[in-house]
Specification:
Blueprint (H helix, E strand, L loop, with lengths): L2 E5 L2 E4 L9 E6 L2 E6 L4 E5 L3 H26 L12
Antiparallel strand pairs: 1-2, 2-3, 3-4, 4-5
């Protein structure tokens, strides 16, 4: 499970050959959520509201890069790192 970004204590991962729809895993402390990329939404799990807002802000800035990484992971290729939220 490659880590593609990390910011404000939130680590973002994608699994190789993961199930559709395109999504990523976000870890924050003991919390984990699966986040759909397009449309951006929580598919499973819970995080504090502020953390969810930060994740959604980051997705809005990097949606195309996330979709490209999804394609790479689907093809068993290493995803590219994505710039963290500043």
């Amino acid at each position: 499970m490659p880590k593609i970004s990390e910011f404000y204590g939130i680590a973002i991962y994608m699994f190789y050959s993961d199930h559709a729809p395109p999504h990523f895993h976000a870890h924050y402390g003991e919390h984990e959520v699966l986040v759909g990329i397009s449309p951006t939404r929580i598919l499973q799990g819970k995080v504090p509201r502020r953390v969810q807002s930060l994740i959604f802000e980051w997705v809005a800035m990097h949606q195309q890069e996330l979709l490209k990484d999804w394609e790479l992971c689907s093809g068993q290729q290493k995803p590219l790192p994505i710039r963290p939220l500043d």
